[in-house]
Model the fold of this input.
Amino acid sequence: MAMTNNALMDSAHMARALEIAERGRFTAKPNPVVGCLIVKGSTVIAEGWHERAGCAHAEVNALQAAGEAAHDAQAVVTLEPCSHTGRTGPCVEALISAGIVRVAAAMQDPNPAVAGKGFQRLREAGMEVIVGVEGKRAAALNPGFIQRMQTGRPRVRVKLAASMDGRTAASDGSSQWISCEASREDVHRLRAGSCAVVTGMGTVNADNPRLNARLTESIVQPLRVIIDSKGQLSSKAALFDVDGSVLVASAGPRRDKSDAFDSRTESITLPDGAGRVDLAALIDELGRRRCNEVLIEAGAGLAGAFAAAGLIDELLIYLAPDLLGSGGRGMFALPEVVSLEHRLRFEINQVKQLGRDLRVSLRAERREA
Ligand code: AOF
Ligand code: ZN
Done:
C-alpha cells in the first residue's frame, strides 16, 4: 500500500529525530538515547534530545525550545513519552499542557514503568497518537536498554583485534598495535557508548590499560570492570591513573591485603565454585547496576570463557590485513571442538572497512525454538 502524505512526513521527521537522538550516545546512559521534534505542518519548529540521565528528557527539551509555538503543534519522538515520575517529571503531562495535538512515536518504551501507559494517557487527553514510525530503526538505537528492560540482562559485546589469520599477538607476545588508528578510535567510541568495559588480569598484566574512553566529545565514562579471580590486581595499575569508577570481581579474598584500593573502587566476590569468577553472575550483577551495553575487551582466555558460556550477544572483530602465522596467539581459548557439529555458530551482522582494517560484527545464531 502506498504511504500517505502524513506517513511520509512522519518518516522524514522521524529520520531527523533518530539522528539527533545520537547526540546523547556518550552521555545519556543508563537512559536510552531519545530525539524529539516539534512540528507544525511540514515545518520543524524545535528539536530536543536526551543528553544526560537525571536531566530533562528529549520532549521537555524540545518543548522548551519551541515555547508558545508548541500550541496546536505535533511531536515526533523516537520513544514513547514517559508517564512516570522518575528523576524527572512525566513527559506526557508536559506535552498535554503545552497544547500538543498529535504525537508520532517510533516505539513503545520497554521500561515496565511506562510500557504503553504514556500512549494511553495521551489518547485519554484527546490526542491523536501514531505508533511504529521507523520503529525498527528506533529499536536499533537502544538495543542494550531494550534487552535490559525485557530480561534484566545487559547486551554483551566482545571486541577483539586480530590479524587476518586470526592471531591477536605475535609469538613473543607483542600485540600493540595490530589494528589501525581508525579501528582504535572506533574502540574509544564503543567504550564511550558502553555502560561498562570489562577485562581480565591477563590483559592488565600484558598491556596495563586505562580502559577509559579518550575522545574530544563529552563522555560519561563507563564503569571499568576487572575480572581478577585470584585477587592479584595492584592499586598501582594504570587503571587508577584516570577518573572513573572501577569494579573488581574476584573469586576469593585479595592476595596482598596491605595494598588498599581507593574509594572509587568497589570489590565483589562472585565465585563459580572452581576458583574463577562466575561470568553469568557478573553479567546479571551489571544488569542490576543498570548497565545497558557491556564491552568485553580481553584476551583469548576470557573471550573464550564468555563464548563457551553462551554469554555473547555480539562479537566485534577488527581484522588487520596482515599475517602472524601459526606461532601467534589465537582469539578464543575454548574446550576442544572435536567435531564440526559442536562449533559455536554465529551469523554476520555487519561488515565495514575502517582504514586498512575490516570490522566484522557477528551475532550469536538464533536457535530454533
Ligand atoms: C522519554 N524521553 O528522553 C527519555 C525517556 O529517571 P528518569 O526520570 O530520567 O526516567 C528514565 C526513564 O524514562 C527511562 O528508563 C525511559 O523509560 C524513559 N526515558 N523517556 O520520554 C526521554 N530518556
Ligand atoms: Zn520523559
Summary: Residues 5-141 form a domain with the Cytidine Deaminase; domain 2 fold (CATH 3.40.140.10). The chain has ten helices and 14 strands.
